[in-house]
Amino acid sequence: MPSWTVRPEPYDSATAAALWRAYYTEVSDRWYVRETGRRTPPDELERGVTVETGADLAPPAGTLLVGRYGGLPGASAGLRLLGAGRAELTRVYVDDALRATGGGAALMAAVERSARGLGARELVLDTRLDLVEARALYTRHGFREIPAYATGPYSEIWYGKHL
């Protein structure tokens, strides 16, 4: 049976780009289907994918983690320091075909180790209410709702966890 490994990966690698595209496509399509009844228009999808470079996930103030299942990339998560011992978790993604194989748990354990390595004592994140799988993952791993710490067009709920 394959197992998961999670390691840092350059934010601008081909693997990181492919996982970012898969993540962005999924969350964008969910929003578009909910709001308009159709998937993200291709030109809008390309704009969204290219506008976020991921450079804020580069060391020393950030990191991108890539999970591989049996050696094949299938998950990712980004961390960026916000200052004063606080890190933000972002871009959490597990390929739909690999969900329920332990990838989320492996990713979250690596996220916490990496956050501590960056000097964080607290992890925070924001997400949308319709991303129920992600919200379940966060609460399973000890995250609790917190007051809003930032604003954004897709920020609907905020979570935090002391490390």
From TrEMBL:
CDD domains in alphabetical order: NAT_SF
SUPFAM superfamilies, sorted: Acyl-CoA N-acyltransferases (Nat) (SSF55729)
Pfam families with a match to the protein in the record: Acetyltransf_1
Alphabetic keyword roster: Acyltransferase, Transferase
Boundaries of every N-acetyltransferase domain copy: 18-163
Gene3D superfamilies in alphabetical order: 3.40.630.30
Protein name: GNAT family N-acetyltransferase
Organism in which the protein naturally occurs: Streptomyces solicavernae
